[in-house]
Amino acid sequence: MTNLLTANTAPVTTLSSPRISQRYLSLDVLRGLTIALMVVVNTPGSWANIYAPFAHAAWHGFTPTDLVFPTFLFVVGNAMSFSMRKFETLGNEAFLKKVFKRTFLIFMIGVFLQLFPFVVHTPEGGYAWKNFAEMRIFGVLQRIAICYCIASLVVYYLRFRGAVIFSVVVLLGYWAAMYFFGDAADPYSLEGNAALKFDLLFLAPQNLYHGFGIPFDPEGMFSTFPAVVNVIGGYFAGVFIQKQGNTKSTVTKLLLAGVALLCAGLLWDTQFPINKPLWTSSYVLYSVGWDLLLIATLMLLIEVAGYKKWTYFFEVFGRNPLFIFAMSALVIKTLSFIRVGEISLNSWIYQHGFLTWSEGKNASLLFALAYMLTMWLIGYIMDKKKIYVKV
Are 35 and 133 contacting, i.e. CB atoms less than 8 angstroms apart? Predict the structure, then answer.
């Protein structure tokens, strides 16, 4: 079964698209680049020492790190553009079975990562089971699973025009809901936003993320709806590239579309601020705009100009994306759980390794890069042995 992140980008036909004879290496590279950056931003040596580009905006605003997750969703949509035609030939029942199975598996992998390592250290020096009733329900993989599911159903049943209408209605409807149901004084604040109010109708505060100082989940239920549009945007881009081919004209059109969405996002930002934790509609347009610029630039370098020798590094990440992402979380959690005296093993490695020959933000970044390269080595060995983990 083809993984939703690693759909073979060899030539296939897609919804109403002609069969063409080109491979889109740039899509593989974008997928790998996204995984590599996600590992780097998730595993600094010290969260207190991070260069600004590798940290999320505190609330409203946008940094390069705020582009990583929506790009993950964008490449899911890219992969869908190659697999949807095959889904069409399966029939309705088989299509639904595949989509729901993938959704369930990816969601549950996300839940597993939330629970791992299942036990906690006690003050007495022993171990105790985690309180599963207080676990966080949603997270990165859970959002990916839900967005993939909804986007697949939309493009399969509603087709192109219906998917466009769906996207417009969702983005405008989300804006309206956030404005009218948020606190009148500041509807887009951390404490008074409608996404939090909606999530609390279905989830207890202890089941939400607490990293903002209060129970609020940036991957919560309500804000997942606009995130679906990031997947649909990636799908549209993939279909367009297949139809138009690897040409300068295609690159130019993608660049123009990207600039148009960036401008639209910035214009909307004046009324509905660009905000990743709320996943605002302006943030969707702005992030898809950047993704179009990225894929156009990669196409220009790789497909049009033919500079391909540098791409293998990112292809390694792109060939086992879900596995490498999950492995990166499992390994760092294991290192954090193991104790060396009074500190965790990963802190010990950071202090007795990286801080001995570097300091501050440099040491923290070097730890993240070294960890990313370790994950790459795992992916490299798997690729050489032709081991590809698919869901």
Answer: no
Q: Which of the 8 DSSP states describes residue 339?
A: E
Alpha helices in 127-247 (DSSP H): 140-157, 159-181, 194-202, 224-244
CA 206 → CA 74, 196, 197, 209, 213, distances in Å?
A: 30, 13, 14, 8, 12
> For 296-310, how does the pLDDT look when each residue is reduced to its tens digit (9 = 90+)?
999 999 999 999 999
CA distances 127 to 114, 131, 252, 336, Å, are 18, 12, 58, 14
pTM higher than 0.85 for the full model?
yes
- By the 8 A CB rule, do 236 and 77 touch? yes
Strands 339-340 and 127-129 come out as unpaired
- Distance from C-alpha of 330 to C-alpha of 111, rounded to nearest angstrom: 12
For residue 105, the tally of other CB atoms under 10 A from its CB is 14
- d(Cα 277, Cα 66) in Å, to the nearest integer? 9
Domain coordinates of the chain in residue numbers? 25-384
User: Do residues 75 and 31 touch, judged by C-beta distance below 8 A?
Assistant: yes
Cβ atoms of residues 84 and 73 within 8 Å: no
Non-local (6+) Cβ contacts of 367 within 8 A are: 43, 44, 45, 46, 349, 350, 353, 354
Contact 232/154 with Cβ under 8 angstroms? Answer: yes
Q: CA 264 to CA 70: how far, in whole Å? A: 17
Task: List pLDDT tens digits, range 151-174.
Answer: 999 999 999 999 999 999 999 999
- Tell me: the pLDDT tens digits for 185-195? 999 999 999 99
List, in order, residues 6 or more apart from 125 with CB less than 8 Å away: none
